[in-house]
Specification:
Belongs to the methyltransferase superfamily. METTL16/RlmF family. The chain is built from 10 helices and 9 strands. The protein is of the alpha/beta class and about 300 residues long.
Length: about 300
């Protein structure tokens, strides 16, 4: 598969950041702007406060979010990469809808590990009008997400997962129907590995050593026993029980080497179809894996039934 170098064509940030426009909408951002070696306006991406302010400006300018904040220590997500996942999910749903992107609140999306930022539901609702259910095991994350909903009058359903070993159990109710599930899983197997990963990232960016975790992050956001592959394997196993209630199950996969073992796991689960979708964020290529238990004809019916 050819490596992509550009973000999704519908991504509003594919040409970079318009700092003039962002500062006009969010004047507080100006205090965090600096000049790059080439004379371009930017921010210090090692500064979590600066990244948070940039996110606030992006969400206000592009996605009509008047209030957005997260408590200290929680993951501060890069908006362009997060919205790319949403756009590619829209394309995935279009593949089951005669290549037309389904829009509106009758399209239901489930965000596993929605986080304090509530970033995927906020972006997905703004871009496509879908109804989101956000799930998290962390009470502080749910509290923060609820605050974002209340301030912006967002109709997003929030559910607390009380058992960390469960992914879909306990949050998908018997009468629930979802067109797509999404997840940015914890991809390290320990806190030590998470720290090492951050050091590598800063070194690759030419930033030297830093004690800061990239964009912050709580334990459950960054690592879990067994790491990414064990988490997604558990997700696949649990998804079998909800095969008739969800059209597409998806998860980001940070490590390309994990794709082959995950493909074996999916075949064992006897899925009807699965896809690997590649995405590009700057120099980095990321991807998500998607699987369904429904045949092609069933998929079209599933989307059509939602519109009735």
């Amino acid at each position: 598969m050819a490596t992509k170098t550009k973000q999704h064509p519908r991504n509003q940030h594919s040409e970079g950041y318009d700092f003039g426009r962002l500062v006009a909408q969010t004047p507080d951002l100006e205090a965090f702007t600096i000049s790059s070696p080439t004379g371009q306006t930017t921010i210090d991406f090692q500064d979590v406060t600066a990244v948070r302010m940039l996110n606030r400006a992006l969400l206000k300018t592009h996605y009509n979010i008047d209030f957005w904040d997260i408590p200290a220590g929680y993951l501060c997500p890069p908006i362009p990469g997060r919205v790319d996942y949403i756009h590619y999910l829209a394309d995935l749903l279009a593949s089951s809808n005669n290549q037309e992107i389904p829009r509106g609140r009758h399209i239901k999306a489930l965000d596993i590990g929605t986080g304090a930022s509530l970033v995927y539901p906020v972006l997905g609702q703004s871009e496509y009008g879908w109804h989101f259910t956000g799930v998290d095991i962390d009470a502080g994350a749910i509290k923060s997400a609820r605050k974002i909903c209340e301030f912006n009058k967002l109709a997003i359903t929030l559910r607390r997962q009380s058992k960390p070993e469960n992914i879909f159990h306990g949050v998908i109710q018997p009468n629930d129907v979802f067109h797509v599930t999404m997840c940015n899983p914890p991809f390290h197997s320990s806190m030590e590995q998470a720290n090492k990963g951050t050091q590598r990232k800063w070194a690759n960016l030419g930033k030297g050593r830093s004690k800061k975790l990239n964009f912050g992050g709580q334990n459950a956001e960054l690592w879990c026993p067994g790491g990414e592959i064990k988490f997604i394997a558990s997700m696949v196993e649990q998804s079998m029980e909800f095969a008739d209630q969800c059209l597409w199950f998806t998860s980001l996969v940070s490590k390309k080497d994990n794709l082959q073992p995950l493909a074996r796991i999916l075949k064992k689960a006897r899925v009807a179809d699965y896809k690997v979708v590649e995405m590009a964020q700057g120099q980095k290529t990321s991807r998500f894996i998607a699987w369904t238990y429904m045949k092609k004809k069933q998929r079209t019916q599933f989307v059509n039934n939602a519109e009735k």
